[in-house]
Design a protein that fits this description.
Elements lengths: L2 E7 L3 H12 L4 E5 L24 H12 L5 E5 L2 E7 L2 E6 L5 E9 L3 E3 L7 H4 L4 E2 L2 H4 L7 E5 L3 H11 L4 E5 L8 H8 L4 E4 L2 E7 L6 E6 L5 E5 L2 E4 L3 E3 L29 E3 L11 H20 L2
Parallel strand pairs: 1-2, 1-6, 2-3, 6-17, 8-15, 9-10, 9-15, 10-11
Antiparallel strand pairs: 4-5, 5-6, 7-16, 12-13, 13-14
């Protein structure tokens, strides 16, 4: 069984930054992820607020980050689905689904991020992956010159709507509140042709027999119902932390996020966390990277003092 100074679970911006800082602190680092490195930024068309970079494609930024990690001989990356982390005091055991693979380390950083939340209304399961998507960058091209609905009004919804508005026939935004994204992005979206916005709406159902044909929703202010015909839907209604495999550690709050202090330390000595899976107010690429740097620095101090 391989032994490491630090195991990082998750290879998004937080995890990759933690790996770099861990290597620079002379730690032997293992970084695990069940998917390609990058986390959610792989599915982001444009990132415009990462300091010093300007506008950059999310997948391109993810690739640059991963290439940076590979400049260190002491960082190992492995594809693995972590199913359990066990605290054995000075040694932490990480057990994976693939062939019951196991790794041990003196410290662990949890950086598994989040995944898109679902509406759980009629028709959603029926058209999942066949008309309903959570990734405009992945699936937007198939709706070129077609009618599309985006559900949500936050940063992700607005940024991906701007991308979609450039290729679709018509774009309808349906959101529970109003647009809550950065004002500059909201103004840009509102000024675009082919865009209609319906704020303060509840989604009631997705309509269609063999294919998605429309979305029915109701105003939370007037009670009026409306159905919009469409060929595709993209949902951006929030996130759920990907932390189920940590439930037995006793580090999660009621919402499933990892509780940490300002040094990214959980209540379990040697277990740290970083990025979107922790309790925090702002979930952005730049804050995830900052979390990762702090977590790795603190993990280094912890290991040195064992």
């Amino acid at each position: 069984m391989a032994q490491y100074d630090l195991i990082i679970i998750g290879a998004g911006p937080a995890g990759m930054t933690a790996a770099i800082y861990g290597a620079r602190a002379d730690m032997n680092v293992l970084m695990l992820d069940k998917l390609a490195p990058g986390g959610q930024i792989i599915n982001t068309n444009e990132i415009q607020n990462y300091t010093g970079v300007g506008t950059v494609n999310g997948a391109e930024l993810a690739y640059q980050m991963f290439e940076h990690t590979q400049q260190f001989d002491t960082i190992t990356f492995d594809y693995a689905t972590v199913k359990e982390v066990i605290d054995n005091g000075k040694e932490k055991l990480v057990r994976c689904e693939e062939d019951d693979k196991e790794f041990t380390a003196s410290s662990v950083i949890l950086a598994t991020g989040t995944r898109p939340r679902c509406l759980h209304v009629t028709g959603e399961d029926k058209f999942r992956g066949n008309g309903i998507s959570w990734c405009a960058i992945c699936d937007g091209a198939q709706y070129r010159d077609k009618d599309v609905v985006v559900i949500g009004g936050g940063n992700s919804a607005v940024e991906e709507s701007i991308f979609l508005a450039g290729i679709v026939k018509s774009l309808t935004i349906v959101t529970m509140f109003d647009l809550t994204a950065d004002p500059i992005a909201c103004d840009k979206l509102r000024a675009m042709d082919k865009v209609s916005i319906y704020p303060y709406q509840d989604i009631l159902e997705f309509i269609g027999d063999t294919r998605l044909e429309g979305v029915r929703f109701r105003s939370t202010k007037t009670g009026e119902e409306k159905t919009v015909s469409c060929d595709g839907v993209f949902e951006y209604i929030g996130l759920t932390p990907t932390t189920e495999c940590f439930k037995d550690l006793g580090v999660l709050n009621q919402m499933g996020y990892v509780e940490v202090n300002d040094r990214m330390a959980s209540k379990v000595p040697g277990i740290f966390a970083a990025g979107d899976c922790i309790t925090k107010n702002l979930r952005q690429v730049i804050t995830a990277c900052a979390d990762g740097a702090i977590a790795a620095q603190e993990a280094s101090h912890y290991v040195q003092n064992l």
